[in-house]
Specification:
This protein is an alpha/beta fold and 368 residues long. It has eight helices and 16 strands.
Length: 368
Amino acid sequence: MLTNLNYLQNPNFPNRYISPDKLFNFLQANYSAVISQLGSSFLERPIYKMSLGAGAIKVLAWSQMHGNESNATHAMLDLLEIFKYQPDLQKDLFSKITLDFIFMLNPDGSEKWTRRNGHDIDLNRDFLKQSSKEFPFLKELAHKGSYDYALNLHEQRTIFSTDGIHPATLSFLAPAEDFERTITETRKKAMAVIARIYEKLEAEIPNQIARYSDEFYPSSTGDNFTKFGIPTILFEGGHFQNDYKRTGTRKYYTLALYEGLVAISELAGKTDGWESYQQIPENKESHYDLIYRNVKLNTDFECILDVAVQYKEEIKPEDDEISFVPIVVEVGDIGKKKGWKEIDCTGKSFVSDRKFPKLDEEVDFKIE
């Protein structure tokens, strides 16, 4: 069993940002026997698939479809590190399943730390038109591979909580396959897997696991894979309190990935316990990163308001880790939302060259 106590982080990738070149060199140097190149990206970066196991149950998974969502890549790298020191875990799991894992489906976006690919296509909305160079590799593999399950691995913004108080550190979804959100047998298979992940991890991070909205998106990957009969589980890594580098999220994402694979190996297409999925709380859009409360502006009229800030993530040239740039995203009465950090500015001065905070621009004021 994999627990918080025997989790290991892959020491070769300590940062949230992963350089595609560094990842590819690592895979070639250490796992050349089990990787193959599916193709190349718009900017001619390779896209690799790792194949593990010889079990009868076939699983397809992919990471960094959105380039600025690295937790799933970390989770797979961490699992590989764990298996090095606990080979029995690997032997038992991969005697039952075969896993095809695509690292960095969007290496161009991963290089720039952007959601979209090299010519600004969102790969997760490209199922129908296939406007990108990268997405057809995944779609073709899924259609030819006769997979029993698929794992659609993502991250979500810091705005979500489970209950208006605790961050949604992990969220899961069994995607809908129609606008009515019908609970089909295919969805039940995915729900049963998620219910088991929740059962295993809720005690580890209580009140920090949620369900993602099951609104149907006609052009999205998970919805269409489900529609075609492949039970698809969406993973979303989210905020962990005071941890914007997401090292805590990374750890629990790794545990969740392992428990999901174990659940798949044990359920083997059965839907036992799927009903428990519906008891998982749904994501709430409740938070900003930072809220300045009761800010008194330097105006010729009485103006006291709240200022909400979100951190914009970016990778700067020559850096090996992302930076966080505070951006003003809302001003006024923000009483209905909370901040993961809040600063009460009552009795303090707003110091700025401007009279008002500027929306959608970097914070340029101080509170003294």
